[in-house]
Amino acid sequence: MTHLVTLLALALPHFDAGGDLLPRGAVARFGTVRFRVGSLSVRRSHALSPDGKYLAVEDRDGIRLWDTDTGRVAKHLRSRTSQGYSPKFGLCFSPDGRRLARVAGRVVAVWDLATLREVFDIDFKEEGEFEAIGFVPGKDELIVTADQRPRAYTLDARTGKVIRTTEFEGKHWALEPAGPWVLDHVGAAWSLYDASTGKERVRFASESATKGESLVLSPDGRAAWIADTDGIVRHFAVTSGDQVTATGPPPGWKSVGGPVTTAVSPDGRVIYVANSDRGVYRRDVKAGQWLDPIPDVPAGPLLPHPDGKRLLILGKDGVLYRYDVATRRELVGPAGFEGQVTAYPSPDGRSVAVVSGRGPVRLDMFDRAGRFQWSDGLSGFGCIPHWSPDGRRLAVVEEKVIRVLDPVTGKGAGSFDVPGGFVRFHVPVALTSGVDRLIAPLDDGRGVVTFNTATGEQVSLSKSDGTEAVAWSPDGRTLLYASADKGIRLFNAAAGRFRTPWIGPPEGEEHNATGTPGFTPDGCSLLTWELQPSRGASRPRDVWLVLRNPRTGAQREGHELGLSPGFQWAVSPDGLWLAVGTRSGTVDLFDLATGHSLGRWEGHRDAITSIHFVGPGKVLTASADLTALVWDVRPQTGPTGPTWEALCGKDGNQAWKAVWALAADPTAAEFLRSKIAMPGRPATDHVKRWLTDLGADRYAVREAATKELQALGRLVEPELRSARERATSEEVRTRLDGLLARISPERTPAELVQARAVAALEAARTPPARKLLAEWAAGPPGARLTIDAKAALARLGGTR
User: Fold this and answer.
1) Looking at residue 774, what is its pLDDT?
2) Could you tell me if 27 and 632 are in contact, meaning their C-beta atoms sit under 8 angstroms apart?
3) Which residue, 72, 75, 68, 46, is CA-closest to 59?
4) What is the pLDDT of residues 537-593, one digit of tens each?
5) Contact of 37 with 67, CB cutoff 8 Å
6) Residue 505 pLDDT greater than 70, yes or no
7) 8 Å CB contact between 549 and 535
8) Cα–Cα distance between 547 and 745 in angstroms, integer?
9) Residue 604 near residue 585, CB atoms below 8 Å
């Protein structure tokens, strides 16, 4: 019954705090989808309706008509896939706003917006790929221009039938419909052509091909304005092509390179000019003077609203910004994120730090349900917060300074400056647990500094010949360096020296070809992402996840997961499962031990920028679509066979389902108690005697003690490490180093089953489950089962 209730809960629709529907499988949203129309990376084309009510935007999921007043999707058109080798996309509304036309490579389609009925959808195979599309004013016709050819086609907007084919003389860069004309810009001139005859009707002289000019026509097609990166705006008469006026740059204009953006108001009285994200400048054409600019606006297409009161800007980050032209102030919509968004949960998953911003960034703290807690402005760009293992401190790296914050209040708990001789801090940063230490790389890893967070003092500073430090081990003792051509290398932070040489890829290959390497949270593995050696020109190279020894870097095994470059990844705190966020916005879950796929979740509309686990069966993702989502990734079916056999089996998918079947079973604790016994351990005095005998005078005694301790392995690992720190004899240190080296950090098959059982109890969160976890945690200190149970209990102690 419990499992059935879970399945029903997963099937029900969920809504965010603003009342907007969540994707299937998502249970919470940070930020909002209002006015988040899609970034440049996914946005294919856009068009504003003649009345300004809708902004049509196409992405890979179709065409959405966004209500410009509410920021919600009013209509969604499922479009046919594009056709062609490198398709161009375009949208345009009919002059009366009743129809929407689309071009996508060779495909042209038209919709009736009242009924959402597709009028036609035609693949013009013989005509080839198209460049742009536009309605002909006053006629029921469309003009589509050819890509890479000086040709245009006039289509019947009701049937898609080709009415006329027009050839244009000379070389052309990109022909584009512009009202009754076809526009082109080649070399030192802008030209307007007659769409019926292909003859040039008028030419406007271009000042320079390197000044990023842009041209805009007046609504009645009688005037044209050309603006360049120097802020010069030239006015031309379309009938003659003569320059009427040339206006100097507006006050405050700065040339920053790149093309300028221009637009004209619907009444033709105001020209808008923008350069990067410094502001939008306005020219009153009738009065012949510059108006006060709209300051601090994002870069993107300018869309003057037909009501003349608003200016819409389609930001590169995907936000539809709106401004009141009278007050020059932004019309603020629902609170949401801008710029780049990444999310970092606390170790127990209760709190989530979100970094966002299109300039100087900010850090917002939320609880796991998406409720806002506090905000902090950050001075740097691309800041990444780092949690301490106990979740009580949060370190924020701001290039020249690291600030430590109280995550509950957001108040500062200390700050640390870059030591002399170095330029900046480098992520990642490690906040150690149980000891007041903060460890940070410097200048890409050319140095490592340790601070005492209680006193603020610098404890140590060491230099290295490594670059590109990328990850810390969970205990904060080992820093991982990665290089595409050299491979990986491990640095002992306490000793200030490298533990391994460069572990390079095969000849001619690259390490870390598709993802950044890192350690699993349980410390059992080091993960690298590599390309298999080429098997021939006709065979594609496979992307492999390689699991390595976290102490030596030696390769253990690999899994082919079918991933493409540019993904984000995270491993669950217990080291059992791998979550991957892709550039297409999907979330994939894998069993880490076997590489078997556990499921896929879809809902983000852009690339995933960060991914983390936030408790049993929960994954947090942030995306370039400017939202973050919490996903419920629990399976919706149980194992096909007996639960215990699935838990112990080699099928990762069945084992994953068995974990959750046990989590939903109220008798699971007693069942697991009967199946899993705590490993035995020799008396403490025996272990002490063998440790002492490592330094005995007689060789036979030393050898016997070494063999006894080696047989115990991980069960006496804490005592071995403690003895190594106290050892003064070179031979004793050598023997202890040998014993520790033989203790593999990798789980044995039996320990893997135990870890899955611990995961089931942690997910159950019932009193019997907690009781059994406590029993296991109280077992032999060195047992892997004990370590896993203690970690699970610690996580349960901080969850709701």
Assistant:
1) 94
2) yes
3) 46
4) 445 556 789 999 998 899 888 898 888 878 999 999 999 999 999 999 999 999 999
5) no
6) no
7) no
8) 12
9) yes
Lowest mean pLDDT among 149-163, 407-421, 505-519, 583-597: 505-519
The burial of 358, by beta-carbon neighbours within 10 Å (0-12 exposed, 13-18 middle, 19 or more buried), is given as middle
Q: Which of 618, 670, 615, 668 is nearest to 797 (CA)?
A: 615
* Residue of 498, 486, 564, 549 lying closest to 519 (CA atoms): 549
- Cα separation, 220 vs 215, in Å, equals 15
What is the DSSP-derived secondary structure letter of residue 464? -
- How does 359-374 read in b/e, with b if 16+ C-beta sit within 10 Å? eebbbbbbebebeeee
Flag whether the pTM goes above 0.85. Answer: yes
Q: What angle do CA 538, 543, 547 make, to 5 degrees?
A: 145
Mean pLDDT, rounded, for 610-633: 96
DSSP 53: S
Three-class SS state of 708: helix
Bridge partners of residue 344, in order along the sequence: 353
Length, in residues, of the chain: 800
Residues 570, 611: Cα–Cα separation, whole Å: 6
pLDDT tier at 510 (50, 70, 90 boundaries)? low
Phi (first) and psi of residue 308, to 5 degrees? 75, 0
670/761 Cα distance (integer angstroms): 11
Residue 630 has pLDDT above 50, yes or no: yes
**What is the 3-class SS of 274-319, one letter each residue?**
ECCCCEEEEEECCCCEEEEEEECCCCCCEEECCCCCEEEEECCCCE
User: Mean pLDDT of all residues in the chain?
Assistant: 89
**Rounded Cα distance, 444 and 427, in Å:** 8
Q: How far is CA 198 from CA 149, 165, 240, in A?
A: 13, 9, 18
| Chain-centroid distance, C-alpha 267 | 42
Q: What three-state secondary structure class fits 152?
A: strand
Return d(Cα 427, Cα 402) in angstroms, integer.
10
Residue whose entry in the numeric block shows the structure tokens 């003064």: 728
Q: How many helices (H) and strands (E) does the chain have?
A: 11, 56
Q: What tokens does 596 get?
A: 């078997």
Exposure string over 407-417, b if 16+ CB within 10 A, otherwise e: beebeebbebe
Dihedral sign, Cα of residue 635, residue 638, residue 640, residue 643: positive
Cα separation, 38 vs 314, in Å, equals 9
Q: Is 175 exposed, middle or buried (0-12, 13-18, 19+ CB in 10 A)?
A: buried
Lookup result for tokens 């991982």? 480
